[in-house]
Design goal:
This protein is mostly beta strands and 127 residues long. The protein has no helices and 11 strands.
Length: 127
Amino acid sequence: QVQLVESGGGLVQPGGSLKLSCEVSGLTLANADLGWFRQVPGKEREVLSCITKSDTPYYRDSVKGRFTISRDKGKNMVYLQMNSLEPVDTAVYYCATYDYPYHCNGVWYGGYEFASWGQGTQVTVSS
């Protein structure tokens, strides 16, 4: 059974940075594409970034240049480094695994491409 546990969220001022972590179990990270999405209550999921099993990253335009996805296959961890945070980035952030037949390729499907995700971690950007 695949399990994902996100951490690293919190309150940060505009312009600040946070690094989110996601511990993955029940899955060999080297064989999986993974993604990060966020959600604000009452709004649809917004997929932000994904990374292929061969470590190719893709980013939504709104976070390109500010967010960086990475992974440590040895530790089964996935990360999302977020810089230059803005109040509009306030949301619950989730890491997720891809569901067949979807895969990480820079095309976003509104979160429907994901099979499993964790409980999320809250990011609040406010002065």
